[in-house]
From TrEMBL:
It comes from the Bacteria. InterPro entries: AAA+_ATPase (IPR003593), ABC_transporter-like_ATP-bd (IPR003439), ABC_transporter-like_CS (IPR017871), P-loop_NTPase (IPR027417). PROSITE patterns: ABC_TRANSPORTER_1, ABC_TRANSPORTER_2. CDD domains: ABC_Iron-Siderophores_B12_Hemin. It holds the Pfam family ABC_tran. GO terms for molecular function: ATP binding; ATP hydrolysis activity. Keywords: ATP-binding, Nucleotide-binding, Translocase, Transport. This is Iron complex transport system ATP-binding protein.
């Protein structure tokens, strides 16, 4: 972690606090008592193998799946479930893993939907909302796609448009499920920089990431999930160990700390954990 981001996170207040979350899907227990804090001004990475429960945890934080036990508190005092949907949308924004859209809307129209959270039931978007939509398209690097139907966009372009919608929504906590999975290298770096600038602006950012080296460099804190439980949480330097990679991912790996930060190189599969 670079020293600037370290300073950014010192003393950061939790926006969302999950305590003892238990979630079952289709009658199958998936999360078994998970605690997590999404802090203002911090980029928090969720990592772990396929099926560990990362998306489920993110969806629970976004109030898209209801925990059987445990709850999510806003600012440590209000239950997220007690908020009205529109109010909740000013607190949490969720970028799904699958951004497929089967609607014939332009990218601009999709991004404009992000503003609904900030309008009263009877009001129409105004000039200020339009400006925010334009700025959000620009900040996500997709202003040139504004008038294209989202149906005609590539997977990566659609992912960026959906991210622009989150920017227009401007929640206090951005919950991003694999935000770089469909992106080329340059766009990945741009999204990492964007996550960092959102945190600099005071937002809490929680992102599911599969590229561990990218996660190490992009995140102030990492939480490792394994079989629906937290294996470790803390600064990347503490969490990303050879032992963790063997025990959680079932790989022999090299972890190096160089001038650009940590690099994790998987070398050989071990017996599946
Ligand atoms: N609707 C459902 N009914 C039953 N089981 C489900 C349902 N949705 C997800 N699961 C299971 O819950 C577990 C956790 O899934 P989840 O998508 O949270 O994992 P993940 O860590 O995000 O995985 P990935 O890295 O592959 O995206 C998986 O075993 C999955 O098969």
């Amino acid at each position: 972690m670079n020293p600037a981001s370290h300073a950014r996170t010192a003393g950061a207040a939790p926006v969302l606090t999950a305590a003892g979350l238990r979630v079952a899907l289709g009658g199958v227990p998936i999360l078994h008592g998970v605690d997590l804090e999404a802090r203002a001004g911090e980029v928090h990475g969720l990592i772990g193998p396929n099926g560990a429960g990362k998306s489920t945890l993110l969806r629970a934080l976004a109030h898209l799946v209801r925990p059987g036990e445990g709850e999510i508190q806003l600012d440590g005092e209000v239950g997220l479930s007690s908020l009205r949907a529109r109010e909740r949308a000013t607190v949490v924004g969720f970028l799904p893993q699958d951004t497929g859209v089967d609607l014939d809307f332009t990218a601009r129209a999709i991004v404009a939907m992000g503003r609904y959270a900030h309008l009263s039931r009877w009001s129409q978007p105004g000039a200020a909302d339009e400006q925010i939509v334009t700025a959000s398209l620009e900040r996500a690097g997709v202003a040139h796609l504004a008038e294209r139907s989202v149906r005609t966009l590539s997977g990566g372009q659609r992912q960026l448009v959906m991210l622009a919608k989150q920017l227009a929504q401007a929640p206090r906590a951005y919950l991003l499920d694999e935000p770089v999975s469909a992106l080329d290298l340059a766009h990945q770096l741009e999204i990492v920089a964007l996550m960092s600038s959102l945190a600099d602006d005071g937002a809490a950012v929680v992102a599911v990431l599969h590229d561990i080296t990218l996660a190490a460099r992009a995140c102030d804190r990492l939480t490792v999930l394994q079989h629906g439980r937290i294996y470790a949480t803390g600064p990347p330097d503490d969490v990303l160990t050879v032992t963790m990679l063997a025990e959680v991912y079932g790989v022999r790996a090299r972890v190096e700390n160089g001038p650009e930060g940590l690099t994790v190189t998987p070398l050989q599969p071990l017996r599946r954990p």
